[in-house]
Amino acid sequence: MNAIVQDDRRSADRVPYASRVMVLGRESAWFAQLIDLSPWGCGIFRPAGFALAPDDLVRLFFHENDQTMVAVVDARVARVTDSQVGLEYHEPQAVPPRHPQQQ
User: Fold this and answer.
1) Residue ranges making up the domain that contains 51
2) Distance between the two ends of the chain, CA-based, in angstroms?
3) How far apart are CA 36 and CA 77, in angstroms?
4) Which of 57, 56, 61, 67 is nearest to 30 (CA)?
5) Does the residue 28 lie in any domain?
6) Which letter does DSSP use for residue 66 in this model?
């Protein structure tokens, strides 16, 4: 099965959510704005210079109030467009993702 997440195959609804996330992949990092979240993944606005492709592995650092990091989540790039990136978590997460001690 193709691993790319498509709207009609999602097992959970996406929740609009405005916050900041840092995406760490390969040897680069980008700050991005979240578009939406679900227990299985998230969408972000594609940051300038984003150079990853579908199936690349990443680590996501979710922030609260654009400052305090609250969760670190392993994921993979599911899709990339000119303006957005879809990310699929390795394990389901709370919405929004939280540090394990806060769940």
Assistant:
1) 14-102
2) 32
3) 15
4) 61
5) yes
6) T
CATH number at residue 48: 2.40.10.220
Total tally of structural domains belonging to the chain: 1
**Per-run averaged pLDDT (10 residues), the chain, 103 residues:** 43 76 95 95 97 97 77 96 98 87 61
The closest alpha carbon to 81, from 26, 8, 5, belongs to: 5
Amino acid 8: pLDDT: 44
**Tokens at 17, concatenated:** 């959510």
**Any idea which residue has 């999602």 for tokens?**
10
C-alpha radius of gyration, the chain, whole number = 13
What is the distance between the alpha carbons of residues 103 and 101, in angstroms, rounded to a whole number? Answer: 6
- The tokens describing 29, both together, are 């990092």
Give the pLDDT of residue 12: 66
User: In this structure, what are the phi and psi dihedrals at residue 99, rounded to the nearest 5 degrees?
Assistant: -60, 140
